[in-house]
Amino acid sequence: MENNLSQSLDFSLPRKTLKKDSVKTVILASMVGTMIEFYDFYAYGTASAAYFPRVFFPEVTPTIALLLSLLTFGVAFIARPLGSFVFGHYGDKMGRKKTLVISLLLMGCSTVLIGLLPGYNTLGLTAVVLLCLCRFVQGIGLGGEWSGAALVATENAPANKRALYGAFPELGAPLGFFLSNGLFVVLEFTLSPSQMESFGWRIPFLASAVLVVVGFWVREKMQETPLFRMAKQRSATTKSPLVEVFKSNWLEIVQGTFIVAVTYTLFYTLATWSLSYATTTLGFSKQAYLMMLMGTVVIFALLILFASRISDAFGRKRVLLFSAVALVIFGLVFPYLLTGHHNVWGALTFLGVGFALMGIAFGPLGAVLPELFPTKVRYSGSGIAYNLAAIVGAAFAPTIAAWLAANWGIHSVGLYLSLMAVLCVVSLLTMHETKEVDFTK
Questions:
Q1: pLDDT, tens only, 34-44
Q2: Is 247 exposed, middle or buried (0-12, 13-18, 19+ CB in 10 A)?
Q3: Is the pLDDT score of 216 beyond 80?
Q4: Within 13 Å, how many C-alpha atoms sit on residue 347's CB side?
Q5: How far apart are alpha carbons 380 and 311 in whole angstroms?
Q6: Of 397, 341, 1, nearest to 165 (Cα)?
Q7: CA–CA dist 85, 245 (Å, integer)
Q8: C-alpha to C-alpha distance for 384 and 364, rounded to whole angstroms
């Protein structure tokens, strides 16, 4: 496999310049950051849905407390485009490695600090302000994470396996989800509800420090990607990546934003909103529903790999169009699955089908977004599109879904998801197939 990798990256550069990381290092370095990203965000999503309403908003009604808590969830998403501007600029100018190490540390330290924050009963509104500040800084760090990880994978990949290699950072999503969810399940079975509210919710945030140390160690060992080194040798980089990308590739930014946005809406509908809805309306306990989420996320991981391999064979556009059209239908149908009291089979079908479509929609993105942009603005372009998608698709998705369900019924949540899928379909129809692009330019 590594010999094939070496042959595919023969750019007629000196042997010293062509020295590459091992496949194992590429996998770990690209996967670890996305794993931490989704671990951190799902830990926050779970805490904001289940614990933060009472920890940080105890003096308002439960419904308002939930909405306010979920609004703090969106703060990091608003900060992410700012992070993509900053880290994209330096990633295209100075290189992928240094930028990724800094973004990882900023993201990880902010997450740990959330676990140390006092609640409303100790600091009042100051506690809420500090929570939002930590989320904002976390979002800046996250703004440079996914795009850099995707470039580490795809810029080290054989041309005919770019989507497969691009799936490495995507696999970090179910892994991070599984680790976060698993830890919450263990804590829910070990601690009492009062203990979870008092200190148990802090443990997943503090535990993320271990992942950050591992991620830092892996990324310190890796070297710069071959394509960026080639661009530097050819003087093909630019001093103003942000100016260049908005001038020459603004359409690709718009297309990439709406192609990715529906995956965010789907993920946080499945993982955050449905947890709140299932435990408050459908009669599930937190432990039971978290276990169901853990079981069905395996489908998510398997479909990421499957969809990536298929897109290497048949093209990215076909696979993504299939998932987007299927999501339009899923949005119209899933509300019928979440009816009745403690409807286990309905909930399992909702989660299983939802995570299967999530895997198909998410898998090829690790290749598609980088392929939309030339090397000199690839970090900036893919990062801006990915993080604008986080605002459009995720920043307020749990809050919107909770408000829609409370005021217009669960079918309106399905229509919301279908609308996001329609926007994805339109973007894909205007996009050219990227499978055969010359990735060295």
A1: 888 778 877 88
A2: exposed
A3: yes
A4: 26
A5: 24
A6: 1
A7: 11
A8: 18
pLDDT at residue 272, as a whole number? 81
Which has the closest alpha carbon to 110: 95, 129, 132?
Answer: 132
pLDDT tens profile 356-394 = 999 999 999 999 999 999 878 888 888 889 889 988 997
For residue 67, is pLDDT > 60? yes
Picking from 99, 94, 43, 98, the residue whose alpha carbon sits closest to that of residue 73 is: 43
Q: Which domains does the chain have, with CATH numbers?
A: 19-430 (1.20.1250.20)
Amino acid at 16: K
3-state secondary structure the chain: CHHHHHHHCCCCCCHHHHCCCCHHHHHHHHHHHHHHHHHHHHHHHHHHHHCHHHHHCCCCCHHHHHHHHHHHHHHHHHHHHHHHHHHHHHHHHCCHHHHHHHHHHHHHHHHHHHCCCCCHHHHCHHHHHHHHHHHHHHHHHHHCHHHHHHHHHHCCCCHHHHHHHHHHHHHHHHHHHHHHHHHHHHHHHHCCHHHHHHHHCHHHHHHHHHHHHHHHHHHHHCCCCHHHHHHHHCCCCCCCHHHHHHHHCHHHHHHHHHHHHHHHHHHHHHHHHHHHHHHHCCCCCHHHHHHHHHHHHHHHHHHHHHHHHHHHHHCHHHHHHHHHHHHHHHHHHHHHCCCCCCCHHHHHHHHHHHHHHHHHHHCCHHHHHHHCCCHHHHHHHHHHHHHHHHHHHHHCHHHHHHHHHHHHCHHHHHHHHHHHHHHHHHHHHHCCCCCCCCCCC
Q: What are phi and psi of 394, to 5 degrees?
A: -130, -30
Nearest to 146 by CA among 253, 31, 226, 243: 31
For 149, the token pair is: 């990880």
CB 249 within 8 A of CB 372: yes
Indicate the length of the chain as a whole number.
441
pTM: 0.80
- Quickly tell me which residue has 């995570």 as its tokens: 355
Q: What is the mean pLDDT of residues 342-351?
A: 95
Give the confidence band of 254 by pLDDT, cuts at 50, 70, 90. Answer: very high
Confidence of residue 62 (pLDDT cuts 50, 70, 90): confident
Q: Cα separation of 403 and 426, whole Å?
A: 27
d(CA 152, CA 110): 24
CA 247 – CA 359 distance, rounded (Å): 33
